[in-house]
């Protein structure tokens, strides 16, 4: 095999595996094109995968890291729970679940799973997770807010058959519709998820018909073994053994709660231990174990080999210890909606920060560290979006401006879509000048995104981070600018919000979101003057920053 992936000399197994990967991608295309909500149709907040009968992920589309990294955890939990309930998954069945303590993320992520049979033998599961814009609960969008337990965040769906032997249980869909603020979206998006699974099932069945069930099952085993072997070899070739400890914090009102990790590299294995992390809290920043696994795997894969193939074979090499009752492995009924979107980012940050001590020339500075969640709702409508920011400066080059980073892989929601669908008017959307941390390689810029509401009584929930603690730099690079969340009232009054807040806006009031920039990498004084001048011309840094951090002297003849 070539080092860069599952290529050549795999023969039929290669063909089967890449056909399964394509099936996952095709599932995603169908889901996107048939979804109703802008969050899925335009922002692409969904993920699709193919898993083995044992619950191992064997093929995935290029979708959302927090979904994909938790997919196998969710399916294995589901299989155990189904066995307890006597819920046997027969041909033609589809099981639905969104309980975070089973599915592995948060309530908005509704997980659908369909077994694939060939001549009466199960050969795979096809599965998807899609973020539904609202699942009920205290606040529109169902993320954040002043909640102290899971049921306050929305409708909890235990494992149930949404489809039984090919027959959709429409009464269950109506029940879900009755408990959310966007009933037409939830029904339409669920039907899109079902269509996606049908496409995936058909693709895997075609493989079994062409190559035989035994060959398909053997391919799953081969692919898992290959990625395990590849990962072990990659870790061993680092030539590094040792441990490093890092910690970072989440902002919870006036408190800071800690995420702590020890990353240990031993021969051909990596262990990540989150002992020392703060206990779980009665607030929505707890992250279920599936989220912790997904965030850890993402950070490690990014540094070990971003281009390597990915399946559950990777997990065989990585040990994740997350003590129960902590922020990174809470016990029921702790609320978890923001743990999926915000704590996931901090977990990745902490693992990166520890790896920077072991592999200093591979790790970037901190990205903005937040998905910058904005959930908005009024009479009969709700929408949700995450807002881009700056990624951290890298050992080779600058961070990326205005991008979704780390545990999210979603798109920008087009302004035209939101304005045509909801009573909002956007007033700003631009890069945030000077927000990237100074460094030899500058941190990426955050963005400014603002909108006014066009009716009274609109509830807005902001769930973000890095308002108090700025994204850190590395190797002499400086932190990125912190995030800011502002309400500008129609009479001109400005209210500065904390990183997590719910407010009521009336007609003409405006929400302004200024996302954080990435941290800088390396000593800013080592940045070439030509790049400093380019940044000034393009408005990426201010003249004051150029003088203060980069040693720029206005009017001085440019050095070659």
Describe, in plain words, how this protein is organized in 3D.
This protein has 560 residues and is of the alpha+beta class. It folds into two domains: 12-228, no CATH class; 364-560, no CATH class. It is 31% helix and 23% strand. The chain contains twelve helices and 20 strands. It has helices spanning 12-34, 38-41, 65-85, 100-103, 170-177, 183-211, 213-236, 289-304, 337-358, 415-421, 529-537, 543-550; strands at 46-51, 57-60, 94-97, 109-118, 121-131, 160-164, 167-168, 242-252, 255-266, 269-273, 318-321, 373-378, 381-386, 424-431, 447-453, 458-463, 484-488, 494-497, 500-505, 510-514. It has a seven-stranded antiparallel beta sheet. A hairpin with a 2-residue loop joins β8 (242-252) and β9 (255-266). α8 packs parallel to α9. It is globular and about 80 Å long. 57% of the residues are buried. The model is unreliable at 1-8 (pLDDT under 50).
């Amino acid at each position: 095999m070539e080092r860069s992936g599952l290529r050549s000399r795999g023969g039929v197994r290669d063909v089967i595996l890449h056909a399964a990967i394509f099936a996952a991608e095709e599932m995603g295309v169908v889901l996107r094109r048939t979804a109703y909500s802008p969050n899925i149709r335009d922002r692409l907040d969904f993920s699709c995968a193919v898993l083995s009968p044992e619950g191992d992920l064997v093929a995935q589309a290029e979708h959302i890291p927090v979904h994909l990294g938790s997919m196998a955890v969710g399916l294995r939990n589901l299989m155990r729970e189904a066995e307890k309930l006597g819920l046997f998954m027969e041909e033609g069945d589809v099981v639905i679940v969104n309980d975070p303590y089973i599915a592995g993320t948060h309530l908005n992520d509704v997980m659908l799973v369909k077994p694939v049979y060939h001549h009466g033998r199960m050969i795979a599961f096809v599965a998807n997770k899609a973020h539904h814009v609202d699942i009920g609960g205290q606040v529109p969008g169902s993320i954040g807010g002043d909640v102290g337990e899971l049921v306050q965040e929305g409708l909890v769906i235990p494992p149930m058959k949404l489809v039984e032997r090919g027959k959709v249980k429409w009464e269950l869909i109506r029940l879900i519709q009755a408990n959310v603020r966007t009933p037409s979206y939830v029904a339409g998006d669920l039907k899109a998820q079902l269509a996606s699974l049908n496409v995936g099932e058909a693709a895997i069945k075609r493989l079994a018909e062409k190559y035989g069930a035994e060959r398909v099952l053997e391919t799953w085993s081969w692919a898992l073994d290959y990625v395990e072997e590849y990962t072990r070899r990659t870790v061993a070739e680092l030539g590094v053994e040792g441990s490093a400890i890092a910690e970072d914090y989440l902002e919870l009102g006036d408190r800071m709660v800690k995420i702590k990790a020890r990353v240990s590299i031993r021969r051909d294995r990596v262990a990540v231990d989150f002992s020392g992390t703060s206990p779980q809290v009665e607030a929505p920043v707890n992250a279920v174990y599936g989220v912790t696994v997904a965030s850890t795997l993402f950070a490690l894969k990014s540094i070990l080999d971003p281009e390597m193939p990915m399946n559950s074979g990777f997990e065989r090499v990585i040990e994740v210890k997350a003590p129960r009752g902590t922020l990174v492995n809470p016990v029921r009924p702790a609320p978890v909606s923001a743990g999926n979107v915000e704590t996931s980012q901090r977990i990745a940050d902490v693992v990166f920060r520890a790896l920077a001590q072991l592999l200093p020339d591979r790790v970037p500075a901190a990205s903005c560290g937040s998905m910058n969640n904005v959930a908005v709702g009024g009479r009969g409508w709700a929408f949700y979006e995450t807002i881009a920011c700056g990624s951290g400066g890298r050992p080779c080059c600058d961070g990326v401006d205005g991008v979704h980073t780390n545990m999210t892989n979603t798109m920008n929601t087009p302004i035209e879509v939101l304005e045509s669908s909801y009573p909002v008017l956007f007033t700003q959307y631009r890069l945030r000048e000077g927000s990237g941390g100074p460094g030899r390689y500058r941190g990426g810029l955050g963005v400014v995104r603002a909108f006014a509401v066009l009716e009274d009584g609109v509830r807005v929930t902001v769930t973000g981070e890095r308002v108090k603690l700025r994204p850190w730099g590395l190797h002499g690079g400086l932190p990125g600018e912190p995030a800011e969340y502002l309400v500008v009232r129609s009479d001109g009054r400005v209210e500065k919000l904390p990183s997590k807040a719910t407010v009521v806006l009336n007609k003409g009031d405006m929400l302004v979101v200024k996302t954080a920039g990435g941290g800088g990498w390396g000593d800013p004084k080592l940045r070439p003057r030509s790049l400093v001048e380019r940044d000034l011309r393009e408005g990426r840094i201010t003249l004051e920053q150029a003088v203060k951090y980069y040693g720029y002297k206005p009017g001085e003849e440019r050095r070659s």
